[in-house]
Every structure is written in C-alpha cells, then in structure tokens.
Amino acid sequence: MNCNAIEPLLSQYIDGNLKDAQKKLVEAHLRTCAHCKAEMDMLALLVKDLKELPSRTPPAGFSQRVMSRIRLEEMKPASPWKRFFLPFHIKVPIQAIALVLVTFLATYLYRSNPVIQEDMTQLSSPESRIFREDSKVLKKNNASQNALRMEKDEAPSETMALQNTDKTLEKKRKSPETSFKQKEMLFVEAEKNREDLSQEPSLQRRSALSEKMMVIEEAIAPRKKDTLSTEEEAVFFLDASAERGIIRKKLEPLLQNMGGKYFKPGKTSSESKQEEASSEQILWIHLPPSHLDRFKTALASLGEVSESREKAEALQKQKKQIRTQLKKDLPPSLRIKVIIRSPSPKNHR
Amino acid sequence: MKEGGKEIEESVRRVQKGDTEAFEQIILYYEKPIFGLMCRVLGNDTDAEDTAQEVFIAAFRSIRKFRGESRFSTWLYRIAVNHALNRRKRISIEEKRQASAYFTPASIDGKDQEGDNDVLSRLPDTRPNPETRASQKETREQIEKGLRHLKADDALLILLHDLQEFPYGEVAQVLDIPLGTVKSRLHRARKALRKRLAPYFTEKVTR
Questions:
Q1: Is A94 exposed, middle or buried (0-12, 13-18, 19+ CB in 10 A)?
Q2: B205 and chain A in contact, CB less than 8 A
Q3: CA B10 to chain centre
Q4: Which stretches within B17-115 are classed as H helix?
Q5: A94-108, A247-261, B9-23, B119-133: range with lowest mean pLDDT
Q6: Does residue B201 belong to the interface with chain A, where contact is any CB pair within 8 Å?
Q7: Is-contact A189 A138, C-beta < 8 A?
C-alpha cells in the first residue's frame, strides 16, 4: 500500500471508523512511513483539540427572548391570507362549497332573468340606458293603468270617460320621469273622477274631466316626448286571425323586456290618414335596433310575418344612421310598423 | 450530538398539539450547541445570537411538519445549517460592498493570497508573540479562526462531526449529502484546517 491509498483513510482511522482489515493496513503503513505518521499525528491532535473546544453559552435570557418573540407571533392575528386558508382541512371544503353554491345561484339568476341577459349584452350601448329607464316607467304606468282598467270593468257605463283617462295615461307613458307621488295623485284623481262620473255622467262633466286629466298630465314633468330621433321605420305584415288588441297585449311583456314600447304616430302624417282609410290594423312600436331579430321571432309566433321590401332599404339606411348617432351619443331606436291583416290570402304590400 | 431523549420528544409532541410554552424546554436543551455552531460559523456573537433565534423561531413555525422520520436534532440542525449558510452569505455580500468602498487591511498587506473573500478571513491577525504561541487558549483561538477561514461547507462538516459529535450518517442527513462524500470531504476539510494551523501543530507535535 502506498501513501496515496492510505492517506485518505487517516481521518476515518482517527475516528475509529475503519473495518479491522483496513485498520491493520493503515497501521502497517504508518509503522513504515514517517510522512504519513506525521500527518496522522497532526490530524489526531487537531481532532483532539477540536473536541476540546469549550462549548459556547448564549447570552443570558436567550430562551426568554426567543419565547417572547414566539408568543408575540402567536398573539398577532394571522394575516388575512393565512386566515382564509388555514387550517386547510376545515376551510377548504367550506370555501369550495360556498364557491359552488354562489356559482350555481349566479347562473340560475342569470338564466331565469332575460332582462339581465339583455342588459349584459347592451351594457356598453348608450341607448340601452335610456330604454331601461323608459321601460321602468312604462311598467309603473301600466300598473296604474291596469288599476284603472279594473275600475273600468266594475263600472261599464263609464267606459267612454275612462277611455279618456286611459288615453291620457297612454300619453303619459311618453313622459318617463314620473315620481311615485305624482302617479299616486293621478290614480286618486282618476278614482275620484270615476266616482263623480257614476253620480253625474254628463258629457260636459266628461270633457271637464278630460281637461282636468290633461292638466294633471302636464304637471307630471313633461320630459322630451321620447328618446326617438329617427324617422325611418321597419314595416312588417302580420297575417294573424287575432285582433290588434290581443296581439298588442301578447307583445307587451316582450316589448317591456326589450326596452321597446308602443307609440302613436302624429295625426297629421299621411300614414295615419292611410291607416284610417285602410282596413288594416296597425301597431306602432319603438324598439332598440339590437332587438329587431328577437322581435321578428316573437312576431312570427303570432302569425305569418312578411317584411316590406320597399322599406328594407330604408331599414339599412336607418342602421347606418344609428351607427352615426351612436358616435354622437344620441339614443337611436327603430320605428316599427306592424300591419295586421286577416288570414285571408292577400298580396303582400 | 446527544438526542434529548423522551423529555424532548414529549416537548415536541406538546408543541405540535398547540402548547407553545413547551417549546422553551426545546430551546433550553439545544440553545448551547446551536449558538456554539453559529459562533464558529459566523465568527461573532451578535450574528450568532440573532441567527440562533431565527433558527428556533423557524423551527417553532414548522414544528408541525416534523413527522419523526429522522431524529429531532437532525431536523433542527438542518434548519440551523440553512440559516447559518444564508447568514454567512449575507455577511460576505455586505463585506464585499464595504470593501468596494474602502481599502481593507487585508487588501493592503496582501494576506488574501488564497482568494478567500470571506469577511471572516479579514479579521485582524491576533497571533501573539512566539513565546506564548503554544498556549492552550491561543490554540483554541487559532482553531476557531482557522474554521472561519474554511469554506462554509467544510467548516460545517468539522463542526458537526468533531464538535457536535454527530456520527457520519447523521452528518450526511443534516447536510443532505451521501455518506461517502461525508467521509472524503471531512478528511479534506481537516487537512485544510491542519494546513492553516501548520505552524502551531508542527510546534506542538514536535514538542
């Protein structure tokens, strides 16, 4: 055995960590090699001195200082992050269940309410806000209108006068900013009138009532007539057996959802004269253009629908106009004319 | 390293179950060897105490992760070794930053020939006169200084095996290296230290 083979074993020899055979080999070599013997002696001395190094004692109060730091840490409330996640075995299942429930609830609510869906798609369009406002007011007005209708059923003899009331109310729908108090006033007035009429159903009285209602109507914040600014329109022919009133009623909830509404065109327009002349029943509707397809589908469920070809071009034009209006931040809407015809075979247009 | 026995095992269990105060027993049992290790690796008491405190706090924070797969002392020393190495690195970086701004005595007198940039190697040479060189106290000081001059890994091997009396197998576990590596590297580390201390040992051996 030469020095190179023995030398690496010296430390283990000193530590008594060699097997007998290796130990004997090292001892035999050390007896003959002064160099390795000297090296071994020095290493042994070093190890001995190392083992004799005195142990060091930490400064007094070391453990107390560590303990006070630990206690302080224990007293500190866990960080929100830690509190949210620890202990895992309790919090994680609770959080997972909560998350699943919230997700389901949100999905359920979203699916069950088409208005939310529409709102989500329209959030960015400027016209949607106005239509939502309008539809809210419409709903409120419809409620008071329905109340009046109920009254009307109770007193059939006063139909004429109440129809007047009905009309004023319908006009009122175009003034969307109506406070609850004002509506209440209107309702009380209407009821009072009904009572008055049942006692004294004279024509004079009726016209006076009509005037009175008009005054009330004027007082109820006459805002801009509506949010519409376009003159173009889409015209649909609806071949249906049902009457205008029924169709109107059927379409009403849908229109409310879509932010659309019925309106009456100006009496001076030539179209209105045509309407009077023709036997066709016409529904005038204002509708946000984005709902046009949905509206068409709804209309198709009521009867056979065909679109006026003449007006198709106008519709395109209007779409263009709407786009420019959007840039100008004007609220656009489609003016829709639904011409209801009896189901007997007729030429469209 | 002597294992704390059943008392320490019991304290560990109690702490794991939430008895914070039981941790003091663990500190009291291990504070001397841990502080001693830090003193010899880092070279000054302030850093040693600070690092030793960090070791115990880190051990407390993660004591629930100790599953008894190794001895508690092995687990605790792994934390201690990691903290010691990190602190030594930090001290070294800080020292380099200062050295770049000022001349140090070591750089002037050229004592740093071996390229050891460790802060501890630049401690002033406290070698006394040859007459008292062989005194026991002096030998101790020289050994401690020699240890600080060694590479951190080599110093840790010597400290764990020769001072803390961990057997080879446990040193391997604490440092996370193979047993064979422990044997060869321990011998290499001792030789390096012996070389550094040659003037003293030659004198002692020949006496």
A1: exposed
A2: yes
A3: 28
A4: 23-42, 45-61, 72-101, 105-109
A5: B119-133
A6: yes
A7: no
Contact yes or no for A73 and B32 at CB 8 A: no
| Residue B152 scores a pLDDT above 70 | yes
B52 to chain A: which residues are within 8 Å by CB? Answer: 58, 62
Residue A153 C-beta-side C-alpha neighbours within 13 Å: 5
pLDDT, residue A304, reads: 81
How far, in whole angstroms, is CA B132 from its chain's centroid? 27
Q: Tell which of A66, A72, A73 to mutate to test the B interface (max B CBs under 10 Å).
A: A66
Q: What CA–CA distance (Å, rounded) separates A191 from A188?
A: 5
Least confident of A238-242, A304-308, B105-109: B105-109
pTM of the model: 0.49
Of A8, A58, A70, the CB nearest to B31: A58
Say which residue, B129 or B34, is predicted with more confidence. B34
3-class SS of residue B128:
coil
The nearest CA of chain A is from the CA of B103 a distance in Å of: 33
Instruction: Label residue A303 exposed, middle or buried (CB < 10 Å: 0-12, 13-18, 19+).
Output: middle
Q: Scan residues 108-137 of B and list those with Cβ closer than 8 Å to A.
A: none
Cβ-based neighbours of B141, under 8 Å, separated by 6 or more: B126
The answer to whether residue A72 neighbours chain B at the CB level (below 8 Å) is no
